[in-house]
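Notebook entry, structure prediction.
Reason for the run: the old model in the group folder had no record of what sequence produced it. Starting over properly, with the input documented here first.
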Amino acid sequence: MRNQAPPDTGVLPLRPVAALRPAALPAPAPAPAAPALREPLWRDLVGDVLRRERLAQERTLKDVADTARISMPYLSEVERGRKEASSEVLAAAARALGLGLGDLLSRAQGELVRVTGRRAPADRSTARAPYDGLCLAA
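New structure, fully documented this time:
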């Protein structure tokens, strides 16, 4: 059985041999450069923050899961970034660690900035043009 089809059959071989390539065809394009690094998934960042905080407190997965009233396997999957937890589950896990939901999300946002090397966007109040007028409150 032959491995290569004759060039006049119109069949493209799976592994083209340089000797079978007609001179009129251009050489294949070089391989594209490595793709840009992807941004991490939010669930990975949140899971990393939860795990780091739990380990910093020297608490077990079972202890935190029991305090948060969620199953230990589910909390483990959230920490590993395998599950996209609801805000209720994240709030319960954060509370079990002595954090608020805002604290958890703020730390995850800080981790995103650290990992991607990007600065956080300016606060909305500072993004606008400065207002030099007088502000009165009643």
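Summary: The chain has six helices and no strands.
The old model has been moved to the deprecated folder.
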